[in-house]
Design brief:
Length: about 250
């Protein structure tokens, strides 16, 4: 099933210099949540690819036909296409997009830099997984939305109004697998963590710091919730990301 793309949820591409940046959005979200960051990178001269992940930016029903294999496959394909047009590349991701960035970096040794923004890189606690299994066994298809965790007044993420549970299970299964191989990430990394995040627990960042093999630095965001790319720290996220990629990759 494929439905029309919601207005504003289209993918974004920009042709710039020889350094490419792949930008990845989160679970039940779409390119709008990271488009300002992608546009900032493009304005700074990078070649940018921001794909719309399968099942996102259309309808919950559409998303329910997709899995981690579709989202991770799309991320890897987007990276490989970007590699054909650029000499060096960075990956940047928010939430599930951070997990997908880790997935790409694990599988492509030529990733030159990673920026993780409140990334999901580890499975949730066993009791949450047990609760998810019980809901699925009971035939529950969706629960309340997890999107739009934004502190800034008047700003909302254009995410789905419900969370499909079969997709959540697939996400957690995929993340559990990538968690076991975080040590394969050797590229220099920047981790941006909101001090107050109601979607992804901070131990995701803690474990990322402990497990990657390459150098990694962490910056705490004091005035944003989960979707920091459109929250009060938006400008800081953009400048930190641009500066880090310049240092790690160059133009």
């Amino acid at each position: 099933m494929t439905t029309a793309i919601l207005p504003g949820c289209e993918p974004f591409e920009a042709v710039g210099g020889p350094v490419g940046v792949l930008v990845l959005h989160g679970f039940t979200g779409n390119p709008t949540s990271v488009r300002p960051l992608a546009e900032s990178l493009a304005a700074d001269g990078f070649t940018v690819s921001l794909p719309r992940l399968p099942g996102h930016g259309t309808s919950v029903e559409d998303m329910m036909t997709t899995t981690w294999a579709d989202w991770s496959g799309a991320a890897l394909t987007a990276y490989d296409e970007l590699a054909q047009r650029t000499t060096r590349r960075a990956v940047v991701g928010l939430s599930m997009g951070g997990g997908l960035s880790a997935y790409v970096a694990q599988r492509r040794a030529d990733v030159a830099a990673c920026v993780f923004i409140n990334p999901l890189v580890k499975p949730p606690a066993p009791e949450l997984l047990d609760g998810l299994a019980q809901l699925l066994d009971a035939g529950v298809g969706t629960i309340d939305a997890i999107g739009s965790d934004v502190k800034r007044a008047g700003v909302a993420e254009l995410a789905y109004a419900a969370t499909p549970l079969t997709c959540a299970k697939s996400l957690f299964d995929g993340v559990a697998a990538l968690y076991q191989s975080l040590d394969l990430i050797t590229a220099p990394s920047l981790l941006l963590s909101s001090r107050e995040d109601h979607v992804v627990t901070s131990d995701n960042g803690d474990d990322l710091m402990a497990r990657v093999s390459g150098p990694i630095e962490r910056v705490w965001l004091d005035d944003s919730y989960h979707v920091a790319t459109i929250d009060n720290d938006r400008a800081l996220v953009e400048s930190l990301t641009r500066d880090f990629i310049h240092r790690a990759v160059g133009r």
